[in-house]
Amino acid sequence: MGMAKMQQLKPVLHEFGRKVYSTVIRHGADNTGLTKSKIMFGNLFLHIQPVKVHKRTLNFKTTLCAGLITFYLFLILVGTGVLLMFHYVPSTHVGPDGLPEAYQRMLNLRSNVFWGVFTRNMHRWAAHAMVAMMILHVFRVFVTGSYRRPREFNWVIGMICGILTVVLSYTGYLLPWDQLAYWGVKVGTEIAKIAPGGEIIRGILLGDNEVGGEALIRFYVLHVALLPTLLTVFIAIHFFRIRKDGGLAKPDDTSGDKLIPQSECGEVRNTSVFKSARSYQLVEIVKGTEPKVNEEVNQMVFSWPKLMVRELIVFVLVLAVLSVISLAYNAPLEGPADPAHPTNPSKAPWYFLGLQELVSYHALFGGVILPGLLAGLLLVAPYIEIFVETLFGLKRGNISGVYFGKERLLENSLFMTIFIAGILFIIIGSLFRGANWEFVYPWIPTPGGH
Ligand code: HEM
């Protein structure tokens, strides 16, 4: 092809390239509100979030990022979990080397699998961290009263996410099929026996009278298929409702908050349909009460790029911290599961150790009645508040979004008492219990103790 022909083709190719680009990226590169909105709307993952958020949403203190980090850890768990699935086999079948296959696969991760130990470590530490971050998230939501109207039901959805997370973590605990896994699950399922109907649930879960090959298959299927799917669905509902409830809970008056200055929000050329600089247009045309936004309009910022950049930074930080921990510390792996030789003490995973500690005082009261009652009260906490307010004709209005607000002194005191007691019991069960569940000081080594 001659030079002249090439010159003629250049603009055609340029135009073609531009057209192809516009099939993928549909927004401009300018700084208008319309572009910023299109970026958020036009992307499946971003459009889960609103085009505009209140400036408070950008503050670390507002949420401690706890819910977001819980979600990120779930994503990391799915990623590393899929990688582990390429290698793992949920079988207790004893191979020629005398080791159960599931356990053998764990050993193999160390020697034969590229970055196998690292992947397992990431998965293990992320699982523990997810439960811990979720507890912090519940703490934040409660003490700021963020489950109050209209977010009551999202609290219940959150609780379902919480239960699924704990069961997901627990079912994974058995898979390495080592002594820690075997006896940890054995103890947990023994506790289940005490509860009314617990025997039946235990039977369904184990598929047998004892923890064995059937239990491993069932735990595996629950762990890799059923529970992650259910959790994904419930997290989606949780997030959907956060949006429908008008974003994060906040007090009516945010003038006392330290919010980022307007100058940092970047100037927006408002050439868009979003003239009023807010994202409530639809609400205005349907009949109903308009959200109280007018005096707060100035506090709204475009999610792109401020919120998105912050979310990305949090994700990178989570990944970095988890990677460092996973390089430095290996996930535990003891000897292969041996039903004939109990570990002493046999401990459930840490988040059940408060329960195990209570069981050691009184099986039925400590293991079933008290925790059942507390879990039930926590599940319906927002509705108890509504009930008491209705009973006493209390009109407290919007008192959410503030840490330890003085109007909620009673609720927060009750919650904190139970919360701190729960953490203390977990610490005692984890660190201060040795062989035969006797009290030990963790800093004094016990002969033969763990
Ligand atoms: C897998 C578990 C969970 C995930 C991934 C999750 C995620 C989130 C996220 C990302 C938010 C937005 C605010 C933030 O980042 O903190 C949020 C808000 C919320 N979560 Fe969760 N959550 C989980 C479990 C729970 C649990 C166990 C509860 C309650 C028992 C709960 C109740 C709420 C409520 C009421 C809000 C709205 C708070 C507000 O408007 O300030 N969540 N959640």
SSE diagram, text form:
Layout: H1 3-24, H2 33-41, E1 52-54, H3 60-63, H4 66-85, H5 101-111, H6 116-143, H7 152-174, H8 179-194, H9 198-206, H10 213-244, H11 281-285, E2 300-302, H12 306-328, H13 353-361, H14 363-379, H15 381-391, H16 409-431
Antiparallel strand pairs: 1-2
Bound molecules: protoporphyrin IX containing FE (HEM).
Protoporphyrin IX containing FE is lined by residues 63, 66-68, 70-71, 74, 134, 137-138, 141, 146-147, 151, 154-155, 158-159, 161-162, 165, 235, 238, 242, 248-249.
Tell me what you see in this structure.
- The longest helix has 32 residues.
- Strands 1-2 form a two-stranded antiparallel sheet.
- About 3% of the residues have low confidence.
- Helix 6 runs antiparallel to helix 7, helix 6 crosses helix 12 and helix 7 crosses helix 8.
- It is mainly α and 450 residues long.
- It contains 16 helices and two strands.
- Protoporphyrin IX containing FE binds next to helix 4, helix 6, helix 7 and helix 10.
- The site of protoporphyrin IX containing FE has 26 residues, from helix 4, helix 6, helix 7 and helix 10.
